[in-house]
Each structure stands twice: as structure tokens, then as C-alpha cells.
Amino acid sequence: MAWFGKSAKSLNASGAAYAMKGKFDHAIADFDEAMRLDPQYADTFYNRGLAYASKGQYDQAIADFDEAIRLNPKDVDFFAARGRVYAAKKQFDRTVADFDVVVRLDPKEAAKISATFHDHSLAYANKGEYDHAIIDHSLAIRLDPKNAAIFNNRGIAYAETGEYDRAIVDYDEAIKLDPKDASAYDNRGNAYKNKGQHDRAMRDFDKAIRLNPNNPRTFYNRGLAYKKNGDFNRAIADYDEAIRLDPNCTQAIYSRAAIASGRLGRRNRSARSWLNYACSWSCLSTRKCKASPHIPQ
Predict the structure, then answer these.
(1) Which CATH superfamily is domain 196-297 in?
(2) pLDDT 10s digits, 157-193
(3) Distance between CA 143 and CA 122 in Å, rounded?
(4) For residue 274, what are the CA distances in angstroms to 77, 79, 86, 140, 281?
(5) Contact 252, 243 (CB under 8 A)
């Protein structure tokens, strides 16, 4: 490395350029020399910490972030970076402590970091990794506790793991923060339905439909609740509306066919036509009722 005549700031800049190219060892060498020239330059410790973190050397990264924070305890980026590394090490109490500082120093920056964790949590949820999703949702909430969508989506993750009571608590908070979000009522209704509390479920589905009458999933869900209560006519009406809104809503087609078969008998022409329709779709599609939208972001 040709360091002769270079200042700490220029070496810090060249190290950052190496890091941007993924050349972390070159970057660290430049940061080392910059520190030798100016051991009070906090940005160099921060940047070397980022390079170590990118290499998976989390303890070295934390040591550098510690020093950066000692030199400049009001830089929100230093706390945010250390909090992320603590999260990677699954030391979530320390992550939360650093994120609390971020919220205090710069709420706008906290909201940006929260959005990153929210995106990560949705990616985990889409892969079915709900435990990871819940952790990232929780960190996002710590950074942005007024964001209704994060509570709603953490509720979905809890519900997917069968923790319906926790899901309902999150849906309650989402509704408190955004009373006009139909999906939170739909989700809470689903949780009540899965707990066997069909009357409470139907009240939530009614509210969701008033707020958004174009979501086939909500009609399908309310149809299931009506069916559980033995109200087959209303169940069929809701399945019909779900199918009208989304003709490819396989779940509603099957459910309607099942009621027709059970009430009229398989030899009845009407029941037979619905069964044939449902069976034809089993060969063509397994798509669930689409929502419009169901998961706000």
C-alpha cells in the first residue's frame, strides 16, 4: 500500500472505496493506517467496524463501534450499526438498548432502520420462517412503535405459529393506530375464528367488509364463520361474493361445493355441478383467494 503523504481522512476515504468494492482486507489496512495517523477520528473506527461486520468478524466490529461511540456519542449511525451487529449475534437485549438510543437521537433515522427490519421480516414470513420474522418485526416496532402495519404483520406471523392470543394483541394495537385498516380487522377475525369465537370473528369480518367491500378473502373467511355457526345460506352467499370478486378463488369454490354436496346430496344436479366445477379447478389451480391488499407495507 502506498500510504506516504496521505492524511487520515484520505486513507479513510480510500478504505471506504475498497469496502464498497468488497475488498475488505484492503479497506481494513487503509483504516489501520488512518488510525495510526489520527487515533481520535471516530469515522475510521466506524468504517473499519463495518468492514469487520461484512466479514462476519462481529466481535472486532463491536470493539470498533464501541470506540467510535466513545469518541462521538451523538452519532446515530454508530449506535445503529452496533445494534445491527448485536442482532446478528442474537444479543437482542443489547440491540434494543442501542436502538433506543437511535430513537432518542434521531426518530427519522430510527424509522428508516425500522423499515429495513420490516422488509427483512416480510421476506422471512414469505419463506415460512415465522420465528425469524417475529424477531425482526419486534425490532422494527422498537424503532417505530406507531407503525400499524408492523403490528399487523407481526400478528400474522404469530397467527401462523398458532399463537392466536398474541396475534390478537398485535391486531388490537394495529387497529388502535389505524382504525381504517380493513386487513387488521380481517386478520383479527381470522384469529378469533381459529379460536372458535365465531361471533367475535363475524363482527370483525363485518367491519372489514364495510371498510373494504372488494376483498374476496374477507367474504371467504366470514363464510367459514357462518358455516361453523350452521348458517349455511349466509355462508353460501359469502362464498358466492368471494367467487364473484375473484373467480379463481379455489377455497371458496371448494367450500361452496362442500355445502351443496352435504345439503343436497351428490346425486342432486345443482350439487353435482358445483362438485364438478370444484374438481375441474383442482386440476388447474391451487390458488387461494387473493387479497387487495392483505398485508400493508
Answers:
(1) Tetratricopeptide repeat domain (1.25.40.10)
(2) 999 999 999 999 999 999 999 999 999 999 999 999 9
(3) 16
(4) 60, 60, 56, 46, 11
(5) yes
